[in-house]
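PROTOCOL LOG
Step 1. Enter all chains and additional molecules of the complex.
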Amino acid sequence: MTETQILNYALNQFAGIDAEAFELSAPYWQRKTYGKGEFYNEYKNVCKYLGFILDGVFRTYYIDDESADEKNVFFFSKNQVVVAYKSFVTQTPCSYYTESMTESTVLYIHINHLNELYGRSHHWERFGRLVAETAFNLAMNRAEEFMFRTPEQRYLELIQNHPDIFNNVPLYHIASYLGIQAPSLSRIRKRMVGK
Amino acid sequence: MTETQILNYALNQFAGIDAEAFELSAPYWQRKTYGKGEFYNEYKNVCKYLGFILDGVFRTYYIDDESADEKNVFFFSKNQVVVAYKSFVTQTPCSYYTESMTESTVLYIHINHLNELYGRSHHWERFGRLVAETAFNLAMNRAEEFMFRTPEQRYLELIQNHPDIFNNVPLYHIASYLGIQAPSLSRIRKRMVGK
DNA sequence: CTATATTCTTAACCCAAGTTAAGATCGTCA
DNA sequence: TGACGATCTTAACTTGGGTTAAGAATATAG
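Step 2. Run joint prediction.
Step 3. Record the structure below.
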């Protein structure tokens, strides 16, 4: 399959974008590769593009003024959308950094073109709504993890539900994502032995 | 002002719903009062209505199977929308209870009628998108509070940003919302004296 | 295959929240 | 007003994560 076909298939799966609707968008998609550590979108930048990850892993993180260390907020991997959602929909500066953690390849589309597609096809309107719902679910799941689960439970659920992330990201990034320090994650892992 | 006028004004502020668009919806809104402790929507129920709070305060909470105690997730108060968003948009059973904490009055609309309005007017489509964005912001803010702030910081920010909630809700509900136990909140409050 | 950098674990000590139970305070209604 | 229920605080102890720094394990490159 070509990259375009992969995209077409994924958009069809995600939002029922059919061949005709996909054709409308075809001129607008562009391709970009990112090196490890390269930014998809930086702090204080307005996120203007919605990306679809053909390959690679991205993280969005927050830098705490006080503790000065990075806190991982989301991971995005292969066949997922990558975007700084709030910044994208409101076109305001982003509070986060979104960075490629590996060599990555992305197909992306400009917000203006996306807005144009919304007006041209119900399929794309539907796509816009589903992206909103996906963003809501991501944020809500994250809130629920912290409200209802202990760090140990979050760790176990990450292994269960996102082995793709767990197996491709250094543990100190996992710790940050779980909201704890690296030594605490080590203690948790030690505790688990034999359970 | 009549209650309908209050609603009309609020919807105009929120999503630019004009007189004509509001007229479309007028037949669909219904009014209901809730007593203290009465449920807007219960665990395992599908949320079928989107409500606008004329007066009162609601809370949505989760019951932890293990600890068996209630964890407050959101508060909703006067002039806000109350809805179990995920359940509402997906029409699936809700994981939460949403309960009135006071005598309350709500104007509500059925999801079928709302969907009908989406098709009939761009103003209402816009409304739907803004509700989605509001829900995303609520969830994301909640996640950020837990990821980036200490319980003490969360407490201070709640007082600053939501005095309306803080002043009308017992402290043990506040503690639950902050993700801590009542004795911990007492200790935080004691620490604060003199700061 | 070693040297080096990166990542992971461990140890020791600190501190804040959890837990449980008792007691103080506040509100409300008979 | 006085008594009850609801709410809030306090105390004593436990537990688990934070912090810092050192060392072990693993990857990577020369």
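Step 4. Note key features.
Chain B touches chain A at residues 62, 64, 71, 73, 85-86, 89-90, 125, 128-129, 132-133, 135-137, 139-140, 142-144, 146-148, 179 (CB under 8 Å).
The longest strand of chain B covers residues 70-77.
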